[in-house]
Structure formats: structure tokens, C-alpha cells
């Protein structure tokens, strides 16, 4: 499962659970845990709603029930950064390796201020702990308004470097999706 206990999540593709309850786009909650009942192919997600009340979301892992939702749960529910913001930026990333891919999801929602520039976005990505850290000095890049932005870690310290002069223009509110490209790291 791509969700970890304590993680704040948002529904990005609406779905209906086994009890007929609709979970609309934008619904948020904190993931607590999951339980699987093999006899009935039942998967229960236990979540804390924004008011703090615990709720059970029941799903059945069968093709005629909620199996398609469970199979694509990482496309229905995404972890969200803890930062405040008025703009949600959908992040994807390259695959690095199995060990890091298990701990670091390929999809992530970053909540950030709409007026954030490229450097602020890169800093928020690192602060959220989103990209995988494989080896020493892992380095990623993304395209921002036609210019490149590098981000990663050097000697376990985060770094951000905007390419070009002047620095890339544009605001986060102008971008809905951002893909991080893996440039490598020292093993």
C-alpha cells in the first residue's frame, strides 16, 4: 500500500466504497491503518476525518465490487504535503530502484502558495521528503517555464539550483503537474 500511517491524504479521483458512500474529489483525511479480511476479500481503511473522528472505509477486492478501486488506489488517493497552501501541485517522479520505490510514492500532492516561484517549489518538495534518496548526493530535476531546476542532497544537505539567467519565471498557480527526472547519485 502506498499510504503510511499518519499521512495526510486527499481523494483525487472520486470513488464509491462498499457501503455506497461516495468519496468525492477533494475529500481529505489522515490515514491511520488498514486491515485485510481474506475470507471476504475485504480491505478496510481506517482514517481520521478533519474533525478528528475515526472512520472506516470498507472496500471489497473483487472485480464486481471495489477491486478496480483497490488496484488503482494510488490513482484515487494521494498523500499530501503538510504545508499550508492554496494550490495543489500534482507531482510524479522517475523510478529509482525497488528499495526506494517502496518507501517513496511515484505520485504526490504538494500544497503550496500559488505565488511560489520555482526555487520555493523545489524547496517545498525537499521539505516534504517526496523524492527518493538513493545513494549519496541524489539529484533530481524538473522543467519550469522552459528552464531547468536541480534539487537534491549534497553531503546530506538539501540544495536547489535554478538553471539559466535570469532564473525561471512563473508561479506555482500556473502549473498543475510537475515531473521530477532522476539524474542519479553516488552509490
From TrEMBL:
* Pfam families documented for this protein: DUF3601 (PF12208)
What name has this protein been given in UniProt? DUF3601 domain-containing protein
Where's the DUF3601 domain? 4-65
Amino acid at each position: 500500500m502506498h499510504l503510511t500511517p499518519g499521512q495526510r491524504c486527499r481523494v483525487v479521483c472520486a470513488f464509491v466504497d462498499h457501503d455506497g458512500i461516495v468519496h468525492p474529489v477533494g475529500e481529505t483525511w489522515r490515514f491511520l491503518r488498514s486491515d485485510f479480511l481474506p475470507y471476504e476479500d475485504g480491505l478496510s481503511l481506517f482514517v481520521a476525518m478533519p474533525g478528528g473522528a475515526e472512520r472506516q472505509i470498507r472496500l471489497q477486492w473483487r472485480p464486481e465490487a471495489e477491486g478496480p478501486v483497490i488496484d488503482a488506489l494510488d490513482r484515487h488517493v494521494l498523500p499530501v504535503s503538510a504545508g499550508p497552501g492554496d494550490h495543489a501541485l500534482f507531482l510524479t517522479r522517475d523510478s529509482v530502484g525497488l528499495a526506494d520505490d517502496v518507501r517513496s510514492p511515484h505520485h504526490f500532492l504538494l500544497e503550496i502558495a500559488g505565488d511560489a516561484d520555482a526555487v520555493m517549489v523545489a524547496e517545498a518538495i525537499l521539505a516534504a521528503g517526496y523524492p527518493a534518496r538513493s545513494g549519496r548526493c541524489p539529484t533530481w530535476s524538473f522543467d519550469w517555464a522552459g528552464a531547468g531546476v536541480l534539487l537534491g542532497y549534497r553531503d546530506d544537505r538539501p540544495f536547489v539550483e535554478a538553471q539559466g539567467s535570469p532564473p525561471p519565471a512563473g508561479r506555482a498557480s500556473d502549473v498543475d503537474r510537475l515531473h521530477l527526472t532522476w539524474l542519479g547519485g553516488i552509490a
